[in-house]
Amino acid sequence: MRIEDVVSEVEIHDLERSIRASKYPMAVDVAGCSTEVTPTVNKLASSPPGTAHNNFLSGITVRLDLTFSNKVWVEAERYHFFQIVSSQSTMHRISRFDLDESYVEYVDKRIIGIMKELVDKYNETGDPEDYLRLLYSNPAGFKLTADISTNYLQLKTIYQQRRNHRLPEWQAFCDWIETLPHSEWLTNKASE
Question: What are the pLDDT digits (tens) for 51-61?
Fold first, then answer.
């Protein structure tokens, strides 16, 4: 799975401001703190998660559109720091999606055929029972996009926990993390 299948519309905010703020603990006059990435900034950023030395990473906010299957969204729910700004809705639009484009490649074509039959039946009858059959029959491989707000500190945690995950969407997401400015702070890999 490619990065562009999972991540789009990326914006990074407050990188320089957070670098500057990382220097506050040792400053008497914060006006003299620069945005230069110094060895100390790198050392702080490389601190293990949970030590608070790398807390300045929480100020580097990242906004992105994230497209995951239902299977991965269920796992992503454990990350309370994924602020979902807005997302597509199966509740409102399950009978309107282009089902040939809405599933990951691992969904059996026969299941997609059944889903199309259920969509047709509901669109024909409008019966609430037909709607529930359609909604509850939707497989875990259905893709939905959400606008997410998070930060570098949280991405560091996700990377450490998901880099070797078996689902290709997590792999693509971690590949994307490796493309971010100063990704070495998140991955503990030396910058190239």
Answer: 888 999 999 99
